[in-house]
Design brief:
single chain; Rossmann fold; 458 residues; 14 helices; 6-stranded parallel β-sheet; 3 domains; 25% strand; alpha/beta; Alpha-Beta Plaits
């Protein structure tokens, strides 16, 4: 696939890195010669210094042969115009734009992005995507990662197996026998840096990270089975009143009347605007690194500190200080992948990676076949995909026990006519079933083939 990426910042670089690793033909455009130099030096991509919305720059980057343009510059308007130019002058089939301003994203204005107006096929709003992920993590404090599939009816949760975890040292097949009514399937395990798909005879061990697919209404029971029964936070302090912080606070106000939220925002004008916008949230103006201000926000009695500023170092340090002052736990936004490796040793309980969220959204549209959703696991070591089965799919017909499925993949759930089915040897996949699959990086291409439209289909 030939892809043009406009914007070589952290998000653009991350997308280029992933797509180039999968042998796609990638061109990156940015006005910064320094950023383009860095992309050229580190990745197997072509780099162009210029304005991503200018026709001659897009033409030089190969827009006439491109299958997709992904516009992720810092400016919404540049991204929108780049997609318009790519459509009008070069007839690029798929156009993806990052749009951050919530004004453009209001439901009654969405006709703006139709083919007759601004022809954008996919809109990525990292703030909304990250905000939703933060909310899911707040709602399920025992999970290290939470992703929804199948219209929200299926969930994948990453669960850390600790020493007191009740299900460790037990074959997975035996767990199925002990809890026959629990629609949960362990689809992946990360152990000592090695990610693998477990077999029925395998056992979980202390220190493992288990990736479990289950139904939405059984997530809490599943977490409890793994020894995670942490109470949901009701006293929350948010550092950073940007788009994400405001979105999270507003959503908490709407969803949870019992939750008390306080926001610390360093910019006075923005702090005043947030205070005017939100009804029950207390807004404090100042730095989240100031212990006096944290204590004023009652951090010593808080259940959770959520650090969502634009500065990774402020997020990490303020969260560490918060725990030292008595806050029970923290959740931190970390952009720089370098910090992910040692976040745990610093006292960070959980972190969210905005770049990974955006890359997952893009991969959904890069994947061939009827792929409806994709979630990146451990920097691309694996993916969890939701795919729709077609009549011509090799999966349709024979029971799963008779299928020769690729190594490195496991089916976690099947969504059929509003019902979630747990995979078993006797289950038969039907056309239009939506299948949630865990696939190691080496098996992703084979999974795509299972769900591609065959010529026989026409």
């Amino acid at each position: 696939m030939k892809v043009i990426i406009c914007g070589a910042g952290q998000v653009g670089y991350g997308i280029a890195e992933r797509l180039a690793a999968e042998q796609n033909d990638v061109s990156v455009i940015d006005t910064s010669a320094e950023l383009i130099r860095g992309v050229r030096d580190a990745l197997d991509v072509r780099g162009f210094v210029g304005h991503g919305a200018h026709p001659e720059v897009l033409e030089a980057a190969g827009a006439q042969q491109a299958d997709m343009i992904i516009a992720v510059t810092l400016y919404d308007e540049v991204n929108m115009v780049a997609c318009q130019v790519a459509h009008s002058l070069f007839n690029v089939p798929t156009k993806v734009a990052r749009i951050r301003s919530q004004s453009y994203l209001q439901s009654h204005y969405m006709d703006l992005f139709s083919r007759d107006h601004l022809p954008i096929d996919v809109i990525i709003s990292p703030e909304l995507e990250v905000g939703e992920m933060v909310l899911r993590r707040i709602a399920l404090p025992g999970a290290t990662d939470v992703v929804a599939f199948a219209d929200g009816r299926v969930a994948m949760v990453a669960i850390e197996c600790q020493e007191e975890c009740p299900v460790i040292n037990t074959p997975l097949a035996q767990l199925t026998e002990l809890f026959p009514d629990l629609p949960s399937t362990v689809v992946g395990v990360s152990r000592n840096g090695n990610l693998f798909v477990p077999h029925s005879g395998d056992q979980l061990m202390a220190g493992d990270m288990a990736y479990v697919v289950t139904t939405k209404d059984q997530v809490r029971r599943t977490l409890g089975l793994f020894g995670h029964e942490e109470a949901e936070a009701t006293r929350i302090v948010i550092a950073g009143g940007g788009n994400i912080g405001r979105y999270v606070a507003r959503s908490l106000e709407r969803k949870r009347s019992r939750t008390k939220v306080k926001i610390i925002e360093s910019n006075r004008e923005r702090a005043v605007a947030i205070a005017d916008d939100l009804r029950r949230t207390v807004v404090l103006n100042g730095s989240a690194l100031e212990q006096k201000l944290l204590l004023e926000a009652d951090i010593d009695h808080a259940d959770l500190m959520v650090a969502l500023t634009n500065d990774d170092q402020v997020n990490i340090l303020s969260s560490v200080i918060a725990k030292r002052l008595g806050c029970k736990s923290n959740l931190v936004l970390i952009n720089n992948p370098t910090y992910h490796e040692f976040a745990k040793t610093l006292g960070i309980d959980a972190h969210v990676n905005p770049r990974a969220v955006t890359i997952s959204k893009v991969l959904q549209h890069v994947r061939r076949g009827r792929i409806r959703a994709v979630h990146n696991v451990q920097k691309g070591a694996a993916e969890i995909l939701e795919a729709e089965a077609l009549e011509t799919s090799p999966l349709v017909g024979p029971p799963l026990s008779e299928q020769e499925l690729p190594d490195g993949m496991r089916i976690g759930a099947v969504y059929r006519d509003g019902t979630v089915l747990k995979p078993s040897g006797s289950l038969r996949i039907k056309p239009k079933d939506r299948v949630v699959i865990f696939a190691l990086e080496s098996a992703v291409r084979q999974v795509e083939q299972l769900f591609r439209v065959s010529l026989e289909f026409f």
